[in-house]
Design a protein that fits this description.
The protein is an alpha/beta fold. It has one domain: NAD(P)-binding Rossmann-like Domain (Rossmann fold, 3-Layer(aba) Sandwich), CATH 3.40.50.720. It contains ten helices and seven strands. It has helices spanning 20-31, 43-51, 64-78, 102-130, 151-170, 190-201, 210-221, 234-245, 257-268, 271-285; strands at residues 11-14, 35-40, 55-58, 84-87, 133-138, 176-183, 252-255. The protein has a seven-stranded parallel beta sheet, with helices on both faces. Helix 2 links the parallel strand 2 (35-40) and strand 3 (55-58). Helix 1 packs across helix 8 (234-245), helix 3 runs parallel beside helix 4 and helix 4 runs parallel beside helix 5 (151-170).
Length: 287
């Protein structure tokens, strides 16, 4: 890949940089010479990132005022321009669909979809004015195949994919490119954060699924790679760099073998057979 002439002119705002993919991409892009604004929602994380040498802003996707303040702060420092937005911050809400209370599903959408859209819509006018820009959505393999006990997360990422596909059509000719990254298992704090949300929001004791939950709980608590073919977050960084530096970024970027596998199976298999494969995987992982 060709290195850009002057990436320092290119400011990139990233959400969810307290850990995992966001942190890795923030550091990686900064090392590559980009002007990175690494955001996190908690004050202590903002402080930590700052002492780590990153330029930071506080941004909580659940809070419109926080989104507005963060955008204002970034634009003030860049003189009103922004090359790219990496919509990365999100969490997974585990639990069977029939155990999802309305407010639990709403919370999942507030962060993964509504906050992300609100931020994006604050940035689009900036990019339209300047006539260029990159919007990168961190989706998931679970943005196009469903897995049992991940309904809330599946729904939020499927919705993100739909919204992004529409947005891409509407931005045609604007100079703004919108790409989706679809990672499979990546090393991060995702599982530990999902476990917290499971405990917070799912009444496991009273559920018909309680025995599965017991196994799921143990799986989420297990140290080490979450699943076979897990890759480090640098695998996502590579795709982000490609999107930022190629003249024509692709619409979708698969990351990890499972994403390739399920992408292919989804195209080839009839629905009921794909269901059998996905069901078998869920049964095995929650044994
Ligand atoms: N890890 C995987 O296997 C995997 C696979 C496919 C897709 N992804 C996607 O990759 C992205 C990054 O996840 P990760 O794996 O790096 O997990 P992670 O380590 O848990 O990082 C998630 C980040 O999102 C932030 N976040 C959560 N709620 C937020 C909110 N309301 N406002 C702003 N930030 C918020 C978290 O901040 P706090 O620390 O404050 O909670 C954290 O910084 C997510 O979009 C996820 O869906 C991950």
């Amino acid at each position: 890949m060709k290195k850009m002439k002057n990436p320092a002119d290119r400011a990139v705002l990233i959400t969810g940089c307290s850990s995992g993919i966001g942190l890795c991409v923030a550091r990686g892009l900064q090392q590559r010479g980009y002007r990175v604004f690494a955001s996190a929602r908690k004050a202590e994380d903002v402080q930590r990132l700052r002492s780590d040498g990153l330029t930071t802003v506080q941004l909580d996707l659940d809070d419109s005022a926080s989104i507005q303040a963060a955008v204002d702060q970034v634009l003030e420092q860049t003189g009103g321009t922004l090359y790219a937005l990496f919509n990365n911050g999100a969490y997974g809400q585990p639990g069977a669909v029939e155990d999802l209370r309305r407010e639990v599903l709403r919370a999942q959408f507030e962060t993964n979809l509504f906050g992300t859209l609100e931020l994006t819509n604050r940035i689009i006018p900036v990019m339209r004015r300047q006539g260029y820009g990159r919007i990168i959505q961190n989706s998931s393999v679970l943005g196009f195949v469903a897995m049992a006990y991940r309904g809330a997360y599946n729904a939020s990422k499927f919705a993100l994919e739909g919204l992004t596909d529409t947005l891409r059509l509407e931005l045609d000719g604007s100079g703004i490119h919108v790409s989706l990254i679809e990672p499979g298992p990546i090393t991060s704090h995702f599982r530990i954060n999902a476990r917290t949300m499971f405990h917070r929001h799912i009444d496991a004791e009273r559920s018909i699924h309680r025995s599965t939950y017991l196994a799921m709980e143990q799986r989420l608590a297990k140290p080490g790679p979450a699943a076979p073919f897990t890759l480090p977050p640098e695998a996502v960084l590579k795709k982000v760099i490609h999107i930022l530096e190629s003249n024509r970024p692709r619409v979708r970027y698969y990351v990890t073998f499972p994403t390739w596998l399920f992408g292919t199976l989804k195209r080839l298999l009839p629905h009921h057979l794909l269901d059998r494969v996905l069901l078998r995987i869920s049964q095995q992982e929650n044994r």
